[in-house]
Design a protein that fits this description.
Strand content: 5-15%
Distance between the termini: 54 Å
Shape: flat
Number of strands: 4
Largest sheet: 2 strands, antiparallel
Structural class: mainly alpha
Oligomer: single chain
Order of helices and strands: EHEEHHEHHHH
Helix content: over 70%
Number of domains: 2
């Protein structure tokens, strides 16, 4: 790591946070499974059987992450997990995706998909407008035909679809 690139989050801190979150998730899964029977009966596994053991696996794996993190602490203390430059790259991916999510809720999934794909292709990928708009339009039409016509699964629509009479 260069001297002008400071660590925003250390690797050790991220390993501990990840281990704790996974441990909590495993505990929640196990406790949820215990609301049902977790054994076997004459018909086979009861409703909580598989979630219970998956939760136990998550707990064991998270404890492994925590132990490994603490055992390697002296080696990873100064190591960066996230730097400013890395954070910028993560945000370059996350912010358009968050805008896509919010935009799809307001504009509908198909318009949101078109805008997201075209925007990412033009502004991040450096593609020319005609190519990006053609690809985004083609993919959007493909998804519309696939979900709405073939699978007959209506997805979230917005004001444009209502204006065009596409329900």
């Amino acid at each position: 790591m260069s001297t002008n690139e400071r660590s925003l989050i250390s690797r050790f801190a991220m390993e501990v946070v990840t281990g704790c979150i996974a441990l909590l998730a495993g505990i929640v899964v196990v406790l949820g499974a215990l609301e049902y029977e977790i054994g076997w009966d004459e018909a086979g596994p009861q409703p909580g059987y598989f979630p219970f053991y998956v939760g136990l696996i998550i707990i064991v794996a998270s404890l492994g992450v925590l132990v490994q993190g603490f055992l390697n602490r002296s080696r990873t203390t100064g190591e960066a997990f996230l730097t400013r430059e890395g954070f910028k790259r993560v945000m370059a991916f996350f912010l358009p995706l968050a805008a896509f999510t919010a935009g799809s809720y307001v504009l509908g999934l198909y318009v949101g998909t078109f805008v997201y794909l075209a925007g990412v292709m033009i502004f991040q990928g450096g593609y020319r407008w005609p190519f990006a708009l053609t690809v985004a339009g083609g993919i959007t039409v493909f998804f519309f035909v696939l979900f709405e016509r073939w699978f007959q699964v209506p997805l979230l629509k917005g004001p444009l679809e209502a204006f065009l009479g596409i329900y």
